[in-house]
Design a protein that fits this description.
9-stranded antiparallel sheet, 6-hairpin_glycosidase_sf, glycosidase, alpha+beta, 673 residues, single chain, 16 helices
Length: 673
């Protein structure tokens, strides 16, 4: 296992990819960078007015390359160890090994660090010197940086972003302390081994940055900075894991996806900072003109969120809290477009106002508002956390979204139903269409959920919500028995990405398996082959639902052309274009396994499961599934399913969990252990 050859969680290579965008990333919920990149980013720190707002570039003291000048026959390896959240570069000769490790500390989120270790292997006594190349200059095009006094041996800069997102809006200040990096390091003749540690601390106050840096120094003093980080990752993996007895590339893909997604979520316990959501390329990307500038889309709520929720409801709650804090911006967006309630922006940054550089998406791709509410619904069904809704702003958001959908609908006398006109569906090849099947179905779902929550809280349900939900049109062709994408769609028209197939999952819109099959068969051949990476995962989930396992597998296999070597970085489109480290595609891929192979479905009253997986997988283990405060471990083979309760809530619920066989109604009570 140690060499990483057979370990699906360790990615090793003798060389780096020629395209620097495909280098591994090291991030936590607050700080992120790509290895060997000259900038890092801070969660929620953007610069630039509305159409131009992007993640603010902060100069990175971690951009250091280790070399040994004039050395002959050095073996060189680069490794991303997803188990410990650490990137390492190793130079090895017959006389010594030099190791450079880089990481973003998972639990102390204001810290990033790197270390250099030189270790003698032979009985030589001459000094060994490694050079450290660093192009670091403490300047930024996005911040007005000033130099402060050194602190405990660290250099110090601080400064505000230059331009707020909206006039009079916030301009956050960034404070950074870092250990100065010498040009070289030498292991003296009498030393066998030595390590040097270099810290970078970033925060939005002087007090916090100094506290974090001091904490890092204290851990270095007792030799446990890296081990405390590795331990946090061990605990993270212990709480969630998908392992299967199957092909190595699939196992590697799963570890890669989970590593990059888990890197983006807040650690357990008190955050000490406001979490600002997850963008399609994560924190390591999103500078001006790259990876959608670090904005937050439906990618977070529809594609990444379900995986996070299944394992880490606390982190899922932080994602929803971001949306709640953006509610004021969403109310303004709706008002500006002449509607009531809250309209979430197609692209969101620091204020919840629409920051998409192109007006058409903000004006027409309105399904995002329903996608946001769908995440709230899944969370409510999985956790029964009423506090989020009663006390922490969730109910205001739910009500405002319901209000928006009602005001966005118009009554058609001719068809005797409500229409939603002039939208762009998820399939962005089409715009200004009426009655997008997906948009209308997600609006209906929003309204039904809002009414359900109102009833749970004994709040009178507005008549309008019930009426609009009941009478909104979801296009259906009764003759061909399929859902046209919108009014006037003709079969065979090309489609950019998964759209109507999302009705079946995640929307679980009621339909017969015949209609589900027709939708899949109708849209599969006309969907853009090189389109966004999450598309084929959803076709796979659909075919797995219908137990057409080989057909599902051929869809899922298409995803592998979006995974790059050696660090399993995803590209948005298989030709390499679009966003890089595309967490959206990874989220879709994880859902294909987590909700496809297992058949997990979150409903109002239960967590359903109905497994189906291909011949080359013999066993699937999903550890850490969270449901009503319990943690469950599912072990699924072709013959049997085992469910173990590994943790129960401290205050047990009135009715304990039980597994129920749907066909026979047989019940099996589930207790801890």
């Amino acid at each position: 296992m140690a060499d990483g050859k057979d370990d699906p969680a360790v990615f090793t290579s003798a060389s780096l990819p020629s395209d620097p965008r495909l280098l591994a990333t090291v991030t936590n919920a607050y700080l992120g960078t790509r290895v060997y990149r000259d900038i890092l980013h801070v969660n929620g720190v953007y610069n630039g007015a509305v159409g131009d707002t992007h993640r603010a570039d902060i100069p990175s003291p971690l951009n250091v390359r280790m070399t040994v000048p004039g050395a002959e026959s050095l073996a060189e390896t680069f490794t991303l160890n997803t188990r410990t959240g650490t990137f390492s570069h190793v130079l090895q000769s017959t006389d010594y090994t030099a190791t450079h490790q880089i990481y973003a500390h998972h639990s102390l989120v204001h810290l990033m660090a790197f270390s250099i270790t030189i270790q003698r292997s032979a009985h030589t006594t001459q000094p060994i010197t490694v050079q450290l190349r660093t192009p670091f200059v403490p300047k930024s095009r996005d911040l007005d940086l000033n130099q402060g006094p050194d602190f405990q041996g660290a250099h110090y800069v601080y400064g505000k972003t230059l331009v707020p997102e909206v006039e009079g809006g916030p301009r956050p200040t960034v404070h950074m302390l870092w250990t100065p990096v010498p040009q070289d390091l030498t292991l003296r003749g009498e030393e066998r081994e030595r390590s040097w540690e270099f810290l970078t601390a970033v925060a939005e106050s002087e007090e916090e940055v100094k506290r974090s840096y001091s904490k890092g120094l204290a851990l270095i003093a007792v030799g446990s900075l890296h081990s405390s980080h590795a331990h946090a990752w061990t605990m993270l993996w212990r709480g969630c894991c998908i392992d299967l007895d199957g092909p190595l590339p699939l196992r590697q893909a799963l570890y890669g996806c989970l590593y990059y997604l888990l890197s983006a979520i807040p650690p357990r316990g008190n955050l000490g900072f406001l979490f600002h959501g997850i963008s399609p390329g994560g924190l390591s990307n999103g500078t001006q003109g790259e990876d959608y500038w670090g904005h937050i889309f439906w990618d977070q709520d529809t594609w990444m969120f379900p995986n996070i929720l299944l394992f880490y409801p606390e982190a899922a709650r932080a994602v929803l809290e971001y949306r709640i804090r953006m509610l004021e911006g969403a109310l303004r967006n709706a008002q500006e477009q002449g509607y009531k309630g809250a309209k979430f922006p197609w692209e969101s940054a620091a204020t919840g106002r629409e920051v998409c550089p192109e007006e058409i998406y903000g004006a027409q791709e309105i399904h995002v508002t329903g996608d946001v509410l769908m995440a709230f619904e899944q969370y409510y069904c999985t956790t029964q956390d009423q506090k989020l809704f009663r006390e922490d702003g969730g109910w205001e958001l739910v009500g405002a979204v319901a209000q928006y959908w009602c005001s966005r609908m118009v009554w058609s006398e001719e068809e005797q139903c409500y229409h939603i006109k002039g939208v762009m569906p998820p399939d962005e090849y089409h715009y200004r269409v009426d009655n997008s099947a997906y948009t209308n179905a997600v609006a209906q779902r929003s309204l039904n959920f809002a009414a359900d929550v109102a009833r749970d809280f004994l709040i009178p349900v507005p008549e309008e919500w019930v009426d609009c939900a009941k009478k909104v049109k979801v296009p259906f062709d009764a003759e061909k028995k399929y859902h046209p994408e919108y009014d006037g769609y003709s079969p065979g028209e090309p489609v950019k990405q998964a759209d109507v197939v999302l009705l079946g999952f995640p929307l679980m819109h009621p339909m017969s398996s015949e209609v589900r099959r027709n939708d899949l068969a109708m849209y599969e051949p006309v969907t853009e082959m090189d389109g966004p990476a999450m598309t084929w995962s959803m076709f796979a989930v659909g075919w797995l639902e219908l137990k057409e396992v080989q057909r599902a597998q051929s869809q899922l296999n298409k995803c592998f052309s979006n995974i790059t070597e050696p660090f399993k970085i995803w590209v948005e489109n298989s030709d390499g274009s679009g966003a890089v480290n595309f967490l959206t595609g990874m989220g879709g891929f994880l859902q294909a396994v987590l909700f496809g192979y297992t058949g997990f479905r979150i409903t109002k009253t239960s967590l359903r499961f109905n497994p189906a997986f291909p011949d080359d997988i013999n066993k699937l283990k999903v550890t850490g599934v969270s449901y009503f405060g319990n943690k469950l471990k599912f072990t699924i083979t072709k013959e049997e399913i085992r469910i173990k309760v590994t943790e129960s809530p401290r205050d047990p619920p009135a009715s304990p969990l039980e597994a129920v066989l749907e066909e026979s109604g047989q019940q099996f009570p589930l207790r801890e252990g």
